[in-house]
Amino acid sequence: MPITLPTPATTTPSAPSTTTNTSTNPPAVSVTGLKTRLFRPLDLSTARGKSVAATVVLRAVANLVHFILAGLTRSTPSWWCLYYVLDQIVVTYAVSFIADARGTRRIGPVAVGERFFDLFLGVCGVVHVLYMGVLLMCVVSYAIFFGVTGGFVLTIAGAAILPVAVLAAMPEDGEGGLSLP
Question: What are phi and psi of 125, to 5 degrees?
Fold first, then answer.
């Protein structure tokens, strides 16, 4: 017996449309924006793109290692594994704002330009590369099985990424809108 799939019925001009207009549907717009920020292709043609790729990919590798170790350890609660998943999502989302930052932002008398964002992403990339070296040494020396991972480095890097992402999400100087005193 063949299986037939249902076909969409043709609509007449007098019938109301059931399609969702994303321009007037705020949840659809926010989900689309979230997808474009989280699942963007890595651009390796610029220094900023290479820094973003190093930060995001190496953090994913480190979070995967920590996720596996947290799952293998009996003393770690199972819900702690969710931290590594949420950490990757938040950092990827925040770094996408920093990567897209153009122009100058002003915080009171201090002006922060594109050069700051380039340097910050470069430092984040270098920190993540160095951390992978430390993590590799911990794995090779079996210190990782005694809880030595240097995970505080990623915590500090993540704590530094979030305020810079908020700064990058602010409107450019002269655009108006939100500004910090």
Answer: -65, -45
Nearest one of 101, 23, 90, 100 to 60, comparing CA atoms: 90
Is the C-alpha dihedral spanning 83, 84, 88, 89 positive or negative?
A: negative
d(CA 151, CA 145): 13
Closest CA to 61 of 153, 9, 135, 6: 135
Decide if 133 contacts 58 (C-beta within 8 A). no
Q: In the structure encoding, which two tokens stand for residue 78, read together?
A: 């199972």
**pTM for the model:** 0.70
Evaluate whether 45 touches 118 at the Cβ level (below 8 Å).
no
For 71-106, write each residue's pLDDT tens digit: 776 666 767 778 888 888 888 888 988 888 888 888
CA pair distance 128, 123, nearest whole angstrom? 9
Region class of 147: left (phi > 0), else alpha (psi between -120 and 50), else beta: left
Angle formed at CA 71 by CA 70 and CA 77, multiple of 5 degrees = 70
Q: What's the pLDDT tens digit per position in 134-176?
A: 888 877 787 766 766 777 788 888 899 999 998 888 888 776 6
Residue with tokens 């999400």: 169
